[in-house]
Design brief:
CATH class of the largest domain: Alpha Beta
Structural class: alpha/beta
Strand content: 25-35%
Number of domains: 2
CATH superfamily of the largest domain: FAD/NAD(P)-binding domain
Helix content: 25-40%
CATH architecture of the largest domain: 3-Layer(bba) Sandwich
Length: 383
């Protein structure tokens, strides 16, 4: 008897789980990916785009290319979801499956901070990154502010990379001396889940580039006409160019389906990625996986990919029999771009007890080349 698998979301996690299942399951078993966008955007590459090192066509790929692997692709928004029945409505069309994998990611929600959208540019979307690229290319004097609008967000290294890459480009253009760069963080330390040693290393990288770091600055309002930022406790700052990471939230369809828990994200068994609903899994940024230290597992492609592999093996084993899937281990890696053609490589065990065990190596050209190779590998998955 044939089985059907419905994967909601065609990002990193959705691609991996669908591709692994298509390789593992005979052709009579159906694998379908639902994705609202026609083109996949590799988020990590947006950092290079904002400083002119990449073009939009370099970092995007058609989601429909997955169909060449025998994966059915449905384009449209997921409007409703019934996890108990493993049933969804996409652009008015009802879809049902034997297995449901939710990989819808996190929604960007700048509206949670009054005035934020009007005051600057979010570089977590292609459109925002392009707008920031153009603004940065024209910027030759004044105050540049990079800001995280909430303490938790996907790709924890990205805003720090953005600040350092911007500093590099301003230096290349010969205008760095006329620009002050400030980083306002809603969190108490950079990449705090990775531990104090990693946080200290990132702060040192910022300091070496003359980037002032201001932790525990929770933005409550942005005033675009006055170019002023207002923080909790009454602190204020001015800026002439603002680059920001907006607050995130779980997609509305997941919240309306009753899937989100106290964390605001979908709760899963961290070893199996199973939700409380039978044969329904969730992976990637849409999940909230608690760590021993009390915080959530960071949201990043490295974790989505690892979770997807575990889920694919679990579904394949259930359909075909054989060895059960291994438990998800919480091991992750990332590269922190610092400009000048170098990057720092971070890796570790985020399921460590009592705290994650993570290290960050000093920046090197080899690590930068490794990140470029990682980028090529991931873009090829949609080619």
């Amino acid at each position: 008897m044939s089985a059907s698998v419905l994967v909601l979301g065609g990002g990193v996690g959705g691609n991996v789980v669908a591709s692994e299942l298509r390789r593992s399951l005979p052709a009579e078993h159906r694998v379908t990916v639902v994705e609202r966008a026609e083109r996949f955007v590799l988020g990590a590459s947006l950092l290079w785009l904002i400083v002119g090192e990449r073009r939009p066509e370099d970092v995007t790929r058609p989601v429909a290319a997955l169909s060449r692997r025998g994966i059915d692709v449905v384009t449209g928004n997921v409007e409703k979801m019934d996890p108990a029945r493993r049933n969804v409505v996409v652009a008015g069309r009802e879809l049902e499956a034997d297995y449901l994998v939710i990989a819808l990611g996190a929604e960007l929600d700048p509206s949670r901070v009054p005035g934020l959208t009007e005051a600057g540019h979010s570089f977590y979307s292609l459109e925002g990154a392009l707008a920031l690229r153009d603004a940065l290319a024209r910027f030759d004097r004044g105050r540049l502010a990079v800001l995280t609008a909430a303490p938790a967000y996907k790709c924890p290294a990205a805003p720090y990379e953005a600040a350092m890459l911007a500093e590099w480009k301003l230096r290349q253009r010969g205008v760095r001396a006329a620009v002050t760069i400030d980083f306002y963080a809603a969190e108490p330390a950079p990449m705090g889940v990775a531990g104090p040693a990693v946080s200290a290393a990132v702060r040192d990288l910022l300091a070496a580039k003359g980037i002032a770091y201001h932790p525990n600055h929770q933005l409550v309002r942005a005033d675009a006409p006055d170019r002023r930022l207002h923080f909790e406790g009454g602190a204020e700052a001015t800026c002439d160019l603002l680059a920001f990471v907006p607050p995130h939230r779980a997609p509305l369809v997941a919240r309306e389906a009753g899937l989100t828990g106290e964390s605001g994200w979908i709760a899963v068994d961290r070893a199996t990625l199973r939700t409380r609903f039978d044969r329904v899994f969730a992976i990637g940024d849409v999940t909230g996986i608690p760590l021993k230290m009390g915080k959530l597992l960071p949201k990043a492609g490295t974790f989505a990919a690892g979770e997807a592999e575990v889920v694919a093996r679990a579904i394949a084993a259930d359909v075909m029999g054989g060895e059960p899937a291994p438990s998800y281990t919480g091991v992750g890696e990332c590269w922190v771009e610092t400009g000048d053609g170098v990057a720092a490589y971070g890796h570790g065990d985020f399921f460590g007890d009592p705290a994650p065990v993570v290290s960050l190596e000093p920046p090197s050209a080899d690590a930068h080349r490794a990140k470029e190779a990682w980028e090529r590998e991931w873009l090829e998955r949609w080619s």
